[in-house]
């Protein structure tokens, strides 16, 4: 495998940073006196942006390599980007294993039934494979775990 371009390494670092800001959204909201939901919308959108950029730039080992993970990512990114749709939802209660600092609420990807489908313009073609993949791999899953899976996927593609 050829060495990745420096810009690709920077893009992976940007994905890691966006995922870290997602994890620290409560603290960032306090630091910037901003609504936490706004911080979360921005950071998850940024993470999906960088993951999509990496997916476009890196060759896949096979057509089926994490296909549902990536197609679901494209669906979520397209809904956020082209529909300005909030794709995550807050749930009360901690999740296990506990991490510190502890969060008493957690966030999951919204049900596809609760996300308005694209009707015109960019993303209109998402009603097929990408929606199916979102339902199978993303819907109801913890946002943190999905962002970690995306990061690990691209780290593996770079090695």
What is the element layout, followed by pairings?
Elements: H1 6-23, H2 25-32, H3 36-57, H4 67-83, E1 88-92, E2 105-109, H5 129-138, H6 143-157
Antiparallel strand pairs: 1-2
Helix pairs in contact: 1-3, 1-6, 2-3, 3-4, 3-6, 4-5
What does this entry look like structurally?
The structure is a single chain. This protein is mainly α. The chain has one domain (6-157). Helices cover 57% and strands 6% of the residues. The chain has helices at 6-23, 25-32, 36-57, 67-83, 129-138, 143-157, and strands at residues 88-92, 105-109. It has a two-stranded antiparallel sheet with strand order 1-2. Helix 1 (6-23) runs antiparallel to helix 6, helix 3 packs parallel to helix 6 and helix 4 crosses helix 5 (129-138). The chain is globular. The model has no long low-confidence stretch (mean pLDDT 85).
In short:
The protein is mainly alpha-helical.
Labels describing this entry:
two-stranded antiparallel ribbon; mainly alpha; 159 residues; globular
Return Rg in Å: 16 Å
The ordered string of helix (H) and strand (E) elements is HHHHEEHH
Strand residue content: 5-15%
Shape: globular
Q: Strand order across the biggest sheet?
A: 1-2
**Domain unit count:** 1
Beta-strand segment tally: 2
The major pleated sheet works out as: 2 strands, antiparallel
Straight-line distance between termini: 8 Å
What level of helicity do the residues show?
A: 55-70%
| SS class | mainly alpha
State mean pLDDT (0 to 100 scale): 85
Note poorly predicted spans.
none
Number of helices: 6
